[in-house]
Automatic annotation (TrEMBL):
Organism lineage string: Eukaryota, Viridiplantae, Streptophyta, Embryophyta, Tracheophyta
Statement: the UniProt record of this protein carries the keyword Membrane: yes
Bilayer topology annotation: Single-pass type I membrane protein
Residue ranges occupied by any Protein kinase domain in the UniProt entry: 418-695
Subcellular location: Membrane
Spans through the membrane: 320-343
Residues spanning the signal sequence: 1-25
One annotated Gene Ontology cellular component of this protein: membrane
Entries under Gene3D superfamilies matching the protein: Phosphorylase Kinase, domain 1, Ribonuclease Inhibitor, Transferase(Phosphotransferase) domain 1
UniProt KW keywords: Kinase, Leucine-rich repeat, Membrane, Receptor, Repeat, Signal, Transferase, Transmembrane, Transmembrane helix
Species, as recorded: Sedum alfredii
Protein name: LRR receptor-like serine/threonine-protein kinase
GO MF assignments: ATP binding; protein kinase activity
UniProt biased composition (Polar residues): 272-287
Length: 695
């Protein structure tokens, strides 16, 4: 007899079988092992921290849906083949590492994959989907992808970031991405017009900045009714930009975007007749006709969106009266400004000329007329004291020229009693003086205020050890002097001073043949001496060379020895510039009493501040750093670029990309900052043609 089970029991058994099947599928996977194999040859990949990669589950070995390895200091090549069977993988985030190599085409076709972020690595090669892609968000910014990008299979994309790659041309198939809402192709060196994106009607965010695009921008942008954000700056566009577009996107969206004119929106009902005919009678004119009657306004002029053209005055004397008022006001303002400028130039003349230091003053005959202790006042009013009776009792040890016999007395003589006229700078670690010792030995002398508590023999050991560290981008100690508790260090003399003065105190451009401190208003009879100038400040190549040189010097300190040598106070005034603008780091490895725990990550942070200051021309304060980081994060880094660089015809995209390196170096968490070796690689990749110029 055939037994009939109730239908309810059958369904329960079936559901239990399905449950165990699904549980087995979800739990008994080898996803973690496959990822471990994929990153087995990648330095710094830590299997012990693998737990955050998987889903929270009661399974002992759950499947991986979200693979997040961002900012883990990974470098090397991923073995992608081991990730091919991660059937439930939904997102990959490998951003802000130094991974390299190619990305296989099958990765884009993984059925469950919807988000991929590879930004801030060194990936290159081809981006091409093998069949169909489910990816909705793709970020491959700041990599090495070229024009081999085909997007025909990425029809589900809503967000696409290709910025900071060397594409040169629009990607193939871009026009087919009908769902695209966000597109960033900034700093990709793209040429051509906007036809490939003209059909992307769903766009809400569009960044075209720092390319070589051309064509009528206004004609295309008017088609994007949903567009909320636009950046077309630094391109070669043409056409007419209306006041409505200026209000909609802001003037910064069109900064240096090409040869534009701006069309004013005029209220023809009330203004057009009087503007054209000078009265309320006569035929009306359209806004289009009015536009052709007026001269076009350059896009870089200050345009007021609420501006309305004024009517013609009935009084014929009113224009003359206005002109007279304007002329007299202008004269008064200009006279006042000139007076202020002349006063400031006179006041700063002595300071500016002090940094024209290619030829230090030769020491004059000197006779010591008293015994110690000797106290010296700095420009800021601080005192430092050499507690010795006889200045000849404190020898100067010349490490590279041991046969030269100098004493503290020679230092006093060469600096005119460490006078303010000889002082070059004064930082946290002490004042710096210039001097020419007997035998025409040009040196800079630094007083180490924070080493007063260091014993004599400990200081000697420290100086001897630092003297052995040699690198083209490090300024070696050429000698030292211990005078009581004061420790003085001697460095080779650098013709172009330090980076801080070069950036902020030397005027840009060719030397001015007129010296305002010697004009007839002061009745000076001496010859005019031009203040120091630095036309090299306009050169992006020189600033990039300086940035790479500083990075190389700091990388040598961190990685060349058995243990890292820390700087702890890397600031622009501790970077000296040679005659050919080779940067040399000074003041490294010195004992400090600040109580700070010094780390390589802190040095990287300080380098990031120096890099931001070098690219922006602004002081590397916390406020400046925060503002620049915000601009870079929002894709507005171009707004922070030093205007003198743009005058020199720099590659703005390269400067902005260098700012992004500063952004990475100043991350709040130390473990998210790159190493100095990685920084050197990133900077050299930005402008590889200039690396041969670096010593």
């Amino acid at each position: 007899m055939e037994i009939q089970f109730p239908s309810t029991i059958t369904r329960v058994v079936f559901l239990l079988l399905m449950f165990f099947t699904v549980t087995e599928s979800a739990c008994n996977t080898a996803d973690q092992e496959m990822v471990a194999r994929a990153f087995h040859s990648v330095p710094n990949f830590n299997l012990s921290s693998f737990g955050h990669l998987v889903n929270q589950s009661n399974c002992s070995n759950p499947s991986i849906k979200n693979l997040n390895l961002t900012s883990m200091d990974l470098n090397g090549t991923v073995s992608w083949k081991f990730m091919k069977n991660l059937s439930q993988l939904e997102s990959i985030d490998l951003s802000l590492n130094s991974l390299q190599g190619y990305v296989p085409g099958w990765l884009w076709s993984m059925k469950s994959l919807t988000k991929v972020n590879l930004a801030g690595n060194r990936f290159g090669g081809i981006i091409k989907v093998e069949s169909f892609s489910s990816i909705r968000e793709l970020n491959v910014s700041s990599n090495r992808f070229t024009n081999m990008v085909e997007l025909n299979g990425f029809k589900n994309l809503t967000r696409l970031d290709l910025s900071f790659n060397e594409l040169n041309h629009w990607p193939i198939g871009l026009s087919n991405l009908s769902k695209l809402e966000m597109l960033d192709v900034s700093s990709c060196n793209v040429t051509g017009n906007l036809k490939p994106i003209s059909g992307l009607k769903m766009l809400k965010y569009l960044d075209l900045s720092n390319n070589r695009l051309s064509g009528d921008l206004g004609f295309v942008i008017r088609r994007f009714e949903s567009l909320k954000y636009l950046n077309a700056s630094f391109n070669n566009f043409s056409g007419v930009v209306s006041q409505g577009m200026l209000r909609r996107f802001g003037k910064s969206a069109f900064l240096h975007a090409g040869n534009f004119t701006s069309k004013l929106n005029v209220n023809t009902r009330n203004r057009t007749k009087s503007a054209l005919n000078g009265s309320d009678s006569g035929s009306s004119a359209s806004a289009h006709q009015l536009h052709h009657q007026r001269a076009p306004l350059p896009i870089n002029d200050e345009l007021d969106p609420n501006h309305k053209p004024s009517t013609k005055s009935s009084s014929k004397f009113k224009p003359f009266l206005i002109a007279a008022i304007v002329a007299s006001s202008t004269f008064i303002i200009l006279t006042t400004l000139c007076s202020i400028l002349i006063y400031k130039r006179k006041k700063d003349h002595k300071k500016r000329n002090k940094w024209a230091i290619s030829k230090p003053v030769q020491p004059q005959p000197f006779k010591m007329e008293r015994s110690g202790p000797f106290s010296f006042e700095t420009e800021s009013g601080k005192l430092w004291t050499a507690d010795i009776k006889e200045p000849t009792s404190a020898p100067v040890v010349m490490l590279e020229k041991p046969l030269m016999n100098f004493t503290f007395k020679d230092l006093i003589a060469a600096t005119s009693y460490f006078g303010k006229d000889s002082q070059l700078a004064e930082g946290r670690s002490g004042p710096v003086y210039r001097a020419v010792l007997p035998g025409d030995v040009h040196v800079a002398i630094k007083v180490l205020e924070n080493a007063r508590g260091v014993g004599h023999y400990e200081a000697v050991a420290m100086f001897e050890a630092l003297a052995k560290i040699r690198h083209p981008n490090l300024l070696p100690i050429s000698g030292y002097c211990i005078a009581g508790k004061e420790k003085l260090v001697l460095y080779d003399y650098m013709a172009n001073g330090d980076l801080h003065r070069w950036l902020h105190e030397l005027p840009t451009g060719a030397p001015n043949v007129e010296d305002w401190s010697t004009d007839t208003w002061e009745h000076s009879t001496g010859p005019a001496i031009s203040p120091a100038t630095s036309p090299e400040k306009l050169s992006w190549a020189i600033r990039h060379r300086i940035a790479v040189g500083i990075a190389r010097g700091l990388a040598y300190l961190h990685h060349a020895g058995a243990k890292p040598v820390l700087h702890g106070h890397l600031i622009p005034s501790n970077v000296l510039l040679s005659e050919d603008f080779t940067p040399r780091i000074a003041d490294y490895g010195m004992v400090r009493d600040s109580g700070e725990t010094l780390t390589t990550e802190f040095d990287v942070y300080c380098f990031g501040l120096v890099l931001i200051e070098l690219m922006t021309g602004k002081s590397g304060s916390d406020e400046c750093k925060s503002l620049v980081r915000k601009m870079v994060k929002e894709g507005r880094g171009v707004e922070a670029v030093d205007s003198t660089l743009t005058q020199g015809g720099c590659s703005v995209s390269e400067v902005v990309e260098t700012l992004r390196v500063g952004y990475l170096c100043t991350a709040e968490l130390g473990q998210k900052r790159p190493t100095m070796q990685q920084v050197v690689g990133m900077l050299k990749d930005i402008r590889p043609t200039s690396t041969s110029d670096i010593v």
